[in-house]
Amino acid sequence: MTVSPATAVLDRNGLDALIKTLTTQGRTVVGPTVRDGAVVLAELDSADQLPFGWGTRVEAGHYRLVPREDGAAFAHTTGPQSWKTFLHPQREKLWSADRTADGHLSVTAERPEQPSYAFLGVRPCDLRAIAIQDRVLTGGRYQDSGYRERREGAFLIAAECTEPGATCFCVSMGSGPAADTGFDLALTEIVDEAGHRFLIRVGSEAGSDVLARIPHHPADPETETAARNAVDAARDRMGRAMPPVSLRALMGESLEAERWDDVADRCLTCGNCTMVCPTCFCTTTEEVTDLTGDHAERWQRWDSCFDLDFSYLHGGPVRSSPRGRYRQWLTHKLSTWHEQFDSTGCVGCGRCIAWCPVGIDITEEASALHDELETRLRRQEHEKTQEQGEKER
Question: What is the pLDDT of residues 205-252, one digit of tens each?
Fold first, then answer.
């Protein structure tokens, strides 16, 4: 095997060669492209399908494509999809059953051959999200075999963030904008007076092998400096931030906060935030039959803690109110996820903010809970001081 350098430089032709090489290896290359008024993730055949010259403008409950004069390919924020769409698909058949002519039942498990994916343009926040889903779906006693097979064959090409959006807060969650681990190759896009190019770094032996097969140039100090400066500048331009406190402790101390009533008045419990979240993993199963009753199938599909039936037990749902369902989602994401999986469940991608139809902002809610807690603690301290003074008198 030819050993490639740890860093190199690609031009647009090299990026196209990268896609062609991965396709030749039998991989399904998935990356960002423009479709239906958004940057979506789809199968790619060439670099021409990447969103060159397109950026995005996002805010709470707002997402728009905007043209860019510099022709950059990865200068957009995260779109409505995450990579869990492919690793942990929305619907997956588990088994089918048929009644035979002699009246017996034949059950067949679904074990389709899984695609060998190559993901191009994975943001650092999404690299962290994939690592979190790895722990959730393959790290415990009960593993999702379909996810494990798709994940084991996946080749990850990161795209470091140089253009954060107004809803991004990965810095405060420690998940970006630089790609540190979890990738096979990492790209940093540079567009300046020296041209349009990509600094590429190797993160695995498989990445080194792929880089050796495509045309590239040695990395020069100017390009490395430009790439580092672009990522550092993005770190200082985050549109949002979580309050600089222990979110785990904050959620635990805010279970009875009045703020939950405020957000419940606005929340539609539509579940959009869980659908676009790159770490939400909840599923349910359903059985379907044909009209004859001779054929049945069991499917696994995404579910949401905002669904009224999600916590349904005999007699009714455990969390019947929007307040209870939103509180469950936020406290699990930021707090009790630690008890289950030793990490937070949020990576700061901002999708839940942008794609909430009423613009509920997770960072605003966390800050409001923090302010309410601080006010309550000050009031309690004041009351305690007054009570102590009265005793002394």
Answer: 999 999 999 999 999 999 999 999 999 999 999 999 999 999 999 999
| First-last CA distance in the chain | 85
- Is residue 63 within 8 Å of residue 354, measured between CB atoms? yes
CA atoms within 13 A on the CB side of 175: 26
Amino acid residing at 103: G
Return left, alpha or beta for 114; rule: phi > 0 is left, psi -120 to 50 is alpha, else beta. Answer: beta
Q: Please, where are the H alpha helices in 236-271?
A: 247-252, 259-266
What count of residues does the chain have? 393
Facing residues of 63 across strands? 58
Domain boundaries, the chain: 7-235, 247-290+305-378
Cα separation, 334 vs 233, in Å, equals 27
Which residues have C-beta within 8 Å of that of residue 291, sequence separation ≥ 6?
none
Q: Do 353 and 360 contact (CB within 8 A), yes or no? A: yes
What residue ranges in 230-341 does DSSP mark as E strands? 283-289, 295-302, 312-313, 316-317
**pLDDT tens-digit series, residues 3-56:** 456 899 999 999 999 999 999 999 999 999 999 999 999 999 999 999 999 999
Six-digit token string for 312: 């349904």
Residue type, 262: D
Q: Tell me if 310 sits within 8 A of 332, measured CB to CB.
A: no
Strand order across the beta sheet in which 105-109 lies: 105-109, 91-99, 295-302, 283-289
Ramachandran class of 186: left when φ > 0, alpha when ψ lies in -120 to 50, beta otherwise: beta
